[in-house]
Design a protein that fits this description.
Length: 989
């Protein structure tokens, strides 16, 4: 449907794709928010009676929907300057099934903060930020889900508040004169003759040869594949058309295709060939002889790749939702937490203390500690090693401080070692690959998909690294199927044309085989020898490959860890690509480091392991991210349900009915044959293959090849399908006992489907009693929560939280993680690196502040500021009537504590103003105090205190005094002016 819509747009038809109607999960949330949003958007356009074509399945007409009249009447136009009660708006959003959250990260959500309402409407392309002053709507802005920062001001915006479904159906949107066309051409239109069906597929879009008698004469669909042997004939046909006065157009999906074709032709397209280039999507060309018109498709001419659907409006918008922020430090009651000063405790929630709201922490023997909200930055969620839960610390005991001291010393040593390795690599002699050649330019234009912007950036950054005279060490983080392989292919081509050999290291034999085919096909036009080294090869093939690696006749070799065996000696290795890095063990990674010290290394990872990610963020490693999906990728519809054979039967039959294939994951070899028998009973017509890692290598290879060729309907397999297998025709995956997988594993498995622009389905099956159980339930909820594309980063962090961080930071450090928690460990590691690099950013808590006129809690302020008259006191806190969500206030206090420089405070102030609206005086004063602390910390001042008119600055065990051993004195009397004067004095130090 997406492809057909793209082709219709080429002819100026406004084509819309109506997805399946929204379905709710067991907990009342919408299973696929992105599809729901598109569904609402299409209905809204239909309700407005716009002229358009709607592509949908026949079942769509019976789906329940809001009535067209309800949809039309529920539209509200918002404009700055209008009067609108924000409380009433929030209430209305809640009544219409919008979820109230602290921060908006997906459609169907809204958040209230101060004078701001953020909302992401179901039908909207982007989320909106409405800023109010009382009941005046002051401004409307779009904002970015990732940074939460505003991106554009709007003069008006439309808001749709319709009931999700009523007794009406989608059929009610049809008007009397609407035309309905069925895709089933043979039964509906007998005058369409299918001349030749596609050899390997059954779906309707693959019948590329057909003729249709139209009023203009016979319409003939063509098959103009431009292969080497047929080029001459093709160009002869173009000349004949030109001589006979035909109009000939060719549709190119991108600029690269057009340039590549012009290069092959060696002529000017319009002047010499009489051919008009058109930009758009067309899967197959056609001719209308009666009017002498030929329209050709570049996707047929370059028969190597199937062109994806056009970059439809909604696809890139989906990517934005996918990049919503996630954090591991959201604390729920009962979670283990770590207080920087007092250690491991249980979080018992938030209560009202004598001086305001407090986080309540429970320590050993039931001892309770109340932590004021403004000190929330000292408390973080505990994420440890998994397995045994550590004991709570004793409040006031010495065990915690000893553990933290030992960790700090060990972490400093570890950081020093990391930076030493980094520095050594920077100074190792490397090979500077030459700049791009004409071959490189041609090779890049033979890629028939349009690169996404961040894929292009990753390619450019990698090529720039290769041209430097030091060894490259770049990490490419990109979600499953987002185009990391093409980055590796370009890097490999550049290295080979620069005279070097390339090794591609992959974790499994099946992935090695697939990469071998992909690399060999992409480089087939060039004199490049691409070989494969894995256990599927015969002894003689292995001997020949190893000999070719040694004498230099093999330019590129792809293999498993067999590549790092002692008998493999490269003549001149220039680049190593490590794919699916997270799948290799620690021992293999250490060996890579030893072997490839002076070689360029490119690492690809779909779910970045925390060490890699933190190293990259700390600046100890170069990193590129690809987080925009290719134009034709659609989010996978994910369903979680109890094991039910009816679900299995229906899912397999639905996929087979549309000519697709099914993965069924059953991760126990012992019972896999029993499962095969059961599926055969449920779906007797299905052709079922079984694949697992304990099979003979030849047998497994036959199974995989058979399935890839489409000669079976169901692949019943263990996790051997997890890594790298790319079968575009397989678009349903059922995962049995999903509770036994980690979140990153489930995410990668789900990424095996949905690669061909088709709607894909992932069905996670659980035992009935597991549907509500602990970690398994939490893990499953997370995978549903991150249905959108590109959520690999969030998944990695969520999995870290649930399964524990293991020994990902190296075995020597794992004990410290268990003792102090992953978050504090990473914080101390960052501080150690900063210290070793000589950065001036002060560690958290280094400078304290106290003033006799500052009232630091809301409760104390409302009690009247103690004994002082209001004119001599100053509130400094984040008011609860400004940030009403406690979790938002905690997060804001954290941000305040982490603003370690004056510039960081400026950025935070602008961010608060944008996200929360007008900043009240109490919060402004907090920012002023943060500015004082940042300026003082930069001068290594440990504490700042204002008593009366005296400014007392404590540094290096003594106070900073003026001549005559006096404290600096402030001239101002009003409290706010005292803070401003203190800031100026610190700037002058």
């Amino acid at each position: 449907r997406e492809r057909l819509a793209a082709e219709m747009e080429l002819w100026g038809i406004n084509a819309l794709v109506l997805p399946e109607p929204p379905s709710e999960t067991g907990d009342g949330t919408i299973a696929d928010p992105e599809s729901a949003a598109e569904w609402f958007s299409v209905l809204e356009i239909l309700a407005r009676s716009e002229n358009c074509a709607v592509l949908c399945g026949s079942e769509a007409f019976s789906a329940k929907a809001p009535s067209p009249a309800a949809l039309r009447s529920s539209r509200t136009t918002l404009k700055p300057g209008a009067t609108l009660d924000p409380e009433q708006l929030a209430k209305s959003l809640a009544e219409h099934d919008y979820e109230r959250v602290p921060s908006v990260t997906a459609r169907g959500q809204f958040a209230v903060r101060g004078g701001i309402i953020d909302l992401f409407a179901w039908q909207a392309a982007k989320p909106l930020r409405l800023e109010f002053f009382d009941t005046d709507l002051e401004s409307i802005r779009e904002f970015d889900l990732d940074s939460q920062a505003s991106t554009a001001k709007l003069l008006e915006a439309e808001l749709l508040l319709a009931e999700p479904a009523t007794d009406a159906t989608t059929a009610d949107y049809r008007r009397a004169d609407d035309l309905i066309i069925s895709i089933d051409a043979e039964t509906v239109r007998p005058d369409v003759r299918i001349l030749e069906g596609a050899a390997e597929f059954n779906s309707e879009e693959d019948f590329t040869l057909a003729s249709y008698g139209s009023p203009l004469g016979t319409f003939e669909a063509g098959d103009f594949v431009l292969e080497e042997l047929r080029r001459e004939h093709f160009f002869r046909q173009l000349n004949d058309w030109k001589r006979d006065g035909w109009d000939v157009a060719m549709v190119f999906s991108n600029k690269g295709e057009q340039e590549r074709f012009a290069e092959l032709a060696g002529k000017d397209l319009e002047r010499d060939l009489g051919l008009t280039p058109v930009r758009g999507e067309l899967m197959a060309g056609f001719t209308l002889p009666v009017i002498k018109l030929a329209v050709l498709s570049s996707s047929e001419l370059f028969g190597r790749y199937r062109t994806p659907g056009a970059s439809r409006r909604s696809t890139l918008e989906k990517a934005r939702a996918a990049r919503a922020r996630a954090t591991v430090d959201e604390m729920e009651e009962g979670d283990l937490v770590v207080h920087y000063e007092y250690g491991l405790a249980k979080f018992r929630g938030i209560q009202q203390g004598d001086d305001g709201e407090e986080l309540v922490l429970e320590y050993k023997d039931g001892a309770l500690l109340g932590v004021p909200l403004e000190q929330a930055h000292l408390v973080g969620k505990y994420v440890g090693m998994g397995g045994k839960t550590p004991d709570l610390n004793k409040l006031g005991g010495t065990a915690w401080k000893n553990a933290r001291r030992a960790a700090e010393k060990s972490i400093l040593d570890y950081a020093a070692q990391l930076l030493r390795v980094q520095a050594e690599r920077q100074h190792e002699p490397g090979f500077a690959h030459p700049p791009d050649t004409k071959w490189m330019w041609e090779f890049e234009r033979s890629f028939h998909f349009t690169e996404t912007a961040d894929q292009r950036r990753a390619i450019d950054e990698t090529k720039l690294d290769l041209e430097q005279p030091r060894p490259m060490d770049r990490l490419i983080c990109g979600d499953v199927g987002f185009g990391k392989t093409e980055v590796a292919i370009r890097a490999a081509f550049k290295a080979i044309t620069g005279g070097k050999q390339v090794a591609i290291l992959v974790p499994t034999t099946v992935l090695a085989e697939q990469h071998w085919r992909t690399f060999r096909e992409r480089m087939s036009d060039y004199p490049i020898r691409v070989d494969l080294l894995n256990r599927f090869r015969t002894p003689s093939e292995i001997r020949n490959t190893i000999q070719g690696i040694a004498d230099g006749s093999v330019d590129l070799v792809i293999g498993t860890h067999r590549l790092i065996s002692g008998d493999v000696k490269f003549k001149d290795l220039g680049l190593v690509v490590v794919d699916e890095e997270q799948r290799f063990g620690v021992a293999h990674k250490e060996k890579f480091k030893q072997l490839f010290r002076q070689v360029d290394v490119l690492t690809l990872s779909a779910t970045p392991i925390p060490r890699t990610l933190y190293m990259a963020l700390m600046g100890a490693r170069d990193m590129s991210t690809i987080d925009t999906p290719p134009p034709n990728r659609v989010p996978v519809s994910t369903t979680v349900c109890a094991y039910d054979e009816r679900v299995i039967r229906d899912a397999i039959r639905r996929e087979m009915k549309r000519g697709g294939q099914v993965f069924f994951l059953h991760n126990r070899v012992k019972t896999i044959e029993q499962m095969r028998s059961r599926i055969a009973e449920l779906v007797p017509e299905a052709r079922i293959l079984v694949g697992h890692g304990q099979m003979e290598k030849d047998e497994l290879e036959v199974v995989m090849h058979t399935f890839v060729k489409g000669e079976a309907d169901v692949l019943l397999a263990t996790t051997i399908i997890e890594t790298g297998i790319d079968i575009p025709n397989a678009n349903t995956i059922l995962i049995d006992r999903a509770d036994r997988f980690g979140l990153a594993d489930l995410y990668q498995l789900r990424g095996r489907v949905g690669r061909a622009g088709e709607k894909a389905y992932a069905i996670l099956l659980l035992p009935r009693d597991m549907m509500t159980a602990g970690d398994a339930r939490k893990r499953i909820h997370a995978i549903k929560q991150y249905t959108a594309l590109g959520s690999g980063f969030k998944i990695a962090m969520r999995d870290l939280e649930i399964r524990g961080s293991g020994n990902l930071l190296g075995t020597k450090q794992s004990g410290h993680i268990a003792q102090i928690g992953f978050e504090l460990y990473c914080q101390l590691l960052r501080q150690s690196v900063d210290r070793l690099k000589g950065r001036k950013d002060a560690p958290r808590g280094e400078c304290s502040f106290k003033a006799d006129f500052v009232i630091p809690t809301e409760t104390a302020w409302h009690r009247g500021g103690g004994l002082q008259p209001p004119s001599q006191s100053l509130p400094a806190f984040l008011p609860s009537n400004w940030l009403t969500e406690t979790s938002t206030r905690i997060a804001a206090y954290r941000e305040l504590s982490e603003a370690g420089t004056e510039k960081a405070v400026d950025v935070l102030e602008a961010s608060w103003s944008d996200r929360f609206g007008r900043i009240p005086e109490a919060a402004e004063n907090n920012l002023r105090i943060a500015r004082i602390k940042a300026l003082a910390a930069a001068e290594r001042i440990a504490s700042v205190e204002i008593q009366g008119q005296r400014l007392m600055l404590h540094r290096g065990g003594d106070y900073i005094l003026l001549e005559g051993r006096r404290f600096p004195r402030l001239k101002s009397e009003p409290p706010r002016s005292k803070l401003a004067e203190a800031i100026e004095m610190l700037r002058e130090l």
